[in-house]
Here is the input.
Amino acid sequence: MLKLPTRDILPDWLADAVNLTELAKGSTVWLAVTGLSRAGKTVFITSLIHNLLSALHNPNRMPLLRVVGEGRLLAARLEGARAHRLPRFPYAANIETMANGGWPDRTADISEIGVDIRFVPTGMVGRMLGRISGDAATLKLKIVDYPGEWLLDLPLLSQSYAEWSRTTLALWQKGTRAEIGADFLSFIGDHAATEEASEAVAKQAHDLYRAMLMTARDKHGLSYLQPGRFVCPGTIGEVPYLWFAPLALPDGSDRTKPGTLGALMEERYEVYKREVVAEFYKTYFRNFARQVVLVDVLGALLAGRTAFEDTRLATEAILQSFRYGQRNILSTLLGSARVEKVLFAATKADHIPDLQRDHLSALLRNMAAVPALEVRGSDADIDVTALASVASTLEGTQEIDSQRVPVVVGRPVGGATQAKFYVGQVPIRPPRPEQWGAPFLDIPVFEPPVIDPAPVDGVPHINLDLALESLIGDRLR
Ligand SMILES: Nc1nc2c(ncn2[C@@H]2O[C@H](COP(=O)(O)OP(=O)(O)O)[C@@H](O)[C@H]2O)c(=O)[nH]1
Ligand SMILES: [Mg+2]
Here is the structure.
């Protein structure tokens, strides 16, 4: 058996290129998939896995993932079920549902699934290694699905209960929110922070506050909703420390008096920050070196001004979890661990023709004010794209007012046949208030394409291979 040369006698180019031991033994990369509810996380992961498992049979499905396009993929298979810390992502059930023409069930918790990818490393290093070890490399890709709502809690960590209450109430006392929040606002109007602490009143305030958040999300399409666990609780269940809500605190006071309702709320708020928010960042987030944040930009545009503005706020807030600018709370929680790459992706891009997809990613970039490359400093490496995990339409053109315009061709849900749809124009900047008069887009819900549940043909998609290449391509060289 040949011995591997030790690192310090290797030529520089080789020593720099790769950690040989790691390459020979296989290594692991964590890819977290996040985004607000309905952004497309479940469909993204299901399609990604199905296409990876199918890539050997149908390399044309993922040509821009270089390990596939360059013919270096040897095998991709699901990691066996082991005793994992996190629940397993239900890939098999999901692909079955999609093959039957449906969309997967709604989920609101964290889950995990692994794919082992065996491949021939690129270039000289690979050929040399191949000779030395007779082995290909294996990358263990660990994919985690977690609710983007949880990232909306980052600002809480640097806010006292009084500060959080003031900011939150200021937001809910305006516009549409004030209408949605009428019951809650009137209840806390009757219960001052200074009144005597009462378990029952605290719970009632919490229930009204939470009901208000759910209505805002489900009936009005709002997404900038805090705390994130009130909307997506995950597995923590109904623990009493969750039973808090903001209260109107007298101006200038940052302390609550012991024994008051305010003090009870404050105590719970602080436990929530410590046990839930900080714990999430310390236990999980720090391992997710690569992350993709999915945003349903088209859905937000369709939902109108208030919902769009709210998605913009939420996306901006989510971005903060990937910025380490100054010494901030995040650096303290993550220690030396860093998120290396983040891709912000506008999903469901199959609803619009090819020419509009650049507009869609430009809009996402402008919405979230993703910093330009030059000013990023110590942030994660942030990129933006538009994609469709499942393409339910094809491209076409149609004559409108004696002009040929690009359209999408698909079968609307419940419709008998395919039809052409001119869906409108995607603006490249967040629309100004006066621009919301007429709707920007008119998009039907399309039937998903025909899908084979066996991992042979894969799922038609747009840019999924490119997205994966930008996220983990460097680990498959
Ligand atoms: N046409 C189309 N619809 C999609 C796509 N991805 C998601 N959807 C739709 O969006 C819904 C929500 O997606 P899902 O993955 O469950 O969102 P999650 O809550 O982020 O996990 C699905 O039920 C589909 O109707 C896509 O790539 N194309
Ligand atoms: Mg889901």
